[in-house]
Amino acid sequence: MKRFILALAAALISGSAQAQEAASAAPKLPPGLESAQLRPGWITPEGHRIVALDLRLLPGWKTYWRNPGDGGVPPVFDWQGSDNLGKVTLHWPRPEVIDSGGLRTLGFHDQLVLPIEIAPADPTKPIRVEAQVDLGICETICVPAHVDLTAAAPGDKDPIIQAALASVPDAAKEPAICKVTETKDGMRVAATVPLDARDDMAAAAMELADTPVWVSEPEVEVQDGKLTATADFIDDSGKPFALDPAQLRLTLISGEAAVEFSGCQTAG
């Protein structure tokens, strides 16, 4: 009996130690995050890997779109630790328009599922995905957050990722028509598009696809069946710079849909 009691005590101590070790090994989430993961996704017929950043936020918290405006911070990805990564494409779903203390921001309440498409560097080898993600999350105040994530092996198509892909803004069939002018400290772009049926448009966003610059919230004017969005673009030099119209992205966002114009033709 004494041996049994000693063995039982040893087992309980060992189990408690293992539980404490597992608890200490579990990643600690930043305030405002209920969970964070890389959904493992699937392999496309072209051999690309589809995964998704899945952030579930506590009630009242929000995070941000790729170009959120002055009141938000977009996520930054570091893929160190991944294997066989070629081109990485983020398929951003349509954001919400959020009032952040009088500032308009674009982001997400409750949950962000961000699909990520990865082409292999070597098509004959598998893709392994790790990501270190820095992002901003906000309740009444904003805090920086960091998560380290690893995707499990790919499997079947994931309906949660598919739903996020379905909410990606539609691609416009034609580019916008732009007028580009210099300002004292940068460039100003006025992009004009047909209005169509976007009378319920809630917001417009302008950005340069491959050049990180500050962009003002666009001023929007509707006239004669056309919409013109005008914004200032300022880079680190604080001076006029060579702005490539082909890089311009104009996104028009409504409550239930969004459309994205890629590139613009300069007005003759």
Question: How is this structure best described in words?
Answer:
Residues 1-19 form the signal peptide. It holds the Pfam family DsbD_N. Residues 45-151 form the Thiol:disulfide interchange protein DsbD N-terminal domain. This protein is mainly beta. The protein has two domains: 33-166, Immunoglobulin-like (Sandwich), CATH 2.60.40; 170-266, Immunoglobulin-like (Sandwich). Helices cover 12% and strands 47% of the residues. It has two helices and 20 strands. The protein has helices at residues 2-25, 159-166; strands spanning 33-43, 49-57, 62-64, 76-78, 85-90, 96-100, 103-109, 111-120, 130-138, 142-150, 170-171, 176-182, 187-194, 203-208, 214-215, 219-223, 226-234, 248-253, 258-262, 264-266. The strands form four sheets. Strands 3, 4, 6, 7, 9 and 10 form a six-stranded antiparallel sheet that branches. The longest helix is centred in the N-terminal third of the chain and has 24 residues, at 2-25. It is globular, with a radius of gyration of 23 Å.
